[in-house]
Amino acid sequence: MRVHVADHQxxxxxxxxxxxxxxxxxxxxxxxxxxxxxxxx
Length: 41
Description:
This protein is mainly α. About 50% of the residues lie in helices and about 0% in strands. The protein has helices at about 10-20, 25-35.
């Protein structure tokens, strides 16, 4: 499996919120659906 390491401040900031269990569902979904999200969605 190929792994891409994204070393960018904005991506790191968003991933911090996505990984935080205290992030509410609407915020999580909004961040995950934004264009350019590292998930490639």
